[in-house]
Structures are given as structure tokens and as C-alpha cells.
Specification:
Number of strands: 0
Helix content: over 70%
Order of helices and strands: HHHHHH
Shape: globular
Radius of gyration: 20 Å
Number of domains: 1
Structural class: mainly alpha
Length: 173
């Protein structure tokens, strides 16, 4: 019997660890998908439009925060509330991007491949941190505790928020 108990404990530990690792990997796939979208946007459209997009994310967040009619957005069900807020933020991003695209020109800007990868990753983490803090994502999707520990604390939001700006400062020439 002790061998059977040991095997059961090992099996439980292996199953629990494998499921936890799979859940964490699944959550980080979200970051990889956003990273890939940002990277391919920058690769195919250009570095100037990519920088305009990164700056539009910031400006749109400022407009989103002071939007006077946010109280009119639906609050239930949770998925509808999330989609309404994301759509509003996305509309602000598009409008600000179109304005900034006219201002930011790629002739005066250089971002190397490493810089492009780093800025895409920082932009993806910025969007995930923004989703945690500004949108009701936790009501719709429950991330693993590992991802929660990285993105959920409000004390870390400032660092995730400023990271793409610091990346632009050091990597864009």
C-alpha cells in the first residue's frame, strides 16, 4: 500500500504541475499574440507608424480616462461591459493614431530590429497591464496567479505604463 500511496502523490503532483504550467503558458500566449501583432504591424507598415501607434495608446488612454459619458456604457453582463470599454478605447486609439500618423514621419526615425522586438514586447505588456487596470478583464477571464502577480498590482502599473516610453527614449534614434 505505501507504494500505491506514493504513486498517487506523484501522479497528483505531476498532474497539478503540468496543468499549472499549461495555464501559465496559455496566459503568456496572450502576450505573445499581442507582441506578434505589434511586431508585424511595425515590420510591414514601418517604424514611424509603429511609433505613432505606441504614442496613440498613451494619448487614447488619457482621453479614455476623461471621457464624460463612460457612465452610459453597459456594466452587465461582464463580457458586454468589457467589449464596450475596449471598443471605446480602440476608437480613441484609431482617431489619435490617424492624427499622429501625419506628424510622426519615418524619415527622421530609426529603430533597429532589436529595438523593434523590445518595443513590441513592451507594448504588449503595456496593453496587458492596461487591461488589468482600466478594463474589467478579470470578470471575464481569470489569469493564473503568476500572471496576476506580475500585472495586477497597482504599484506595478506605473512601471508597465512607462516601459514603452523608456524603450522609445533609448531605442529610437
Amino acid at each position: 500500500m505505501p507504494i500505491q500511496d506514493t504513486l498517487n502523490q506523484v501522479n497528483t503532483l505531476a498532474t497539478h504541475t503540468a496543468l499549472s504550467a499549461w495555464a501559465v503558458a496559455g496566459d503568456f500566449v496572450i502576450v505573445l499574440i499581442i507582441f506578434g501583432a505589434l511586431f508585424f504591424f511595425a515590420w510591414y507598415v514601418g517604424r514611424g507608424p509603429f511609433v505613432a501607434l505606441l504614442l496613440a495608446l498613451y494619448a487614447a488612454y488619457a482621453v479614455y480616462l476623461v471621457f464624460p459619458y463612460a457612465g452610459l456604457l453597459p456594466t452587465a453582463p461582464a463580457l458586454t461591459a468589457l467589449l464596450a470599454r475596449v471598443a471605446l478605447y480602440g476608437a480613441f486609439v484609431v482617431v489619435v493614431y490617424l492624427i499622429l500618423r501625419r506628424v510622426v514621419v519615418s524619415d527622421f526615425l530609426y529603430v533597429g530590429l532589436f529595438g523593434l522586438i523590445a518595443l513590441s514586447f513592451l507594448g504588449a505588456t503595456f496593453l496587458l497591464a492596461l487591461a488589468y487596470q482600466a478594463f474589467p478583464v478579470s470578470a471575464v477571464y481569470h489569469f493564473t496567479p503568476a500572471v496576476d502577480a506580475i500585472f495586477a498590482p497597482k504599484a506595478y502599473f506605473f512601471w508597465w505604463f512607462i516601459a514603452p516610453l523608456l524603450g522609445l527614449f533609448f531605442l529610437a534614434r
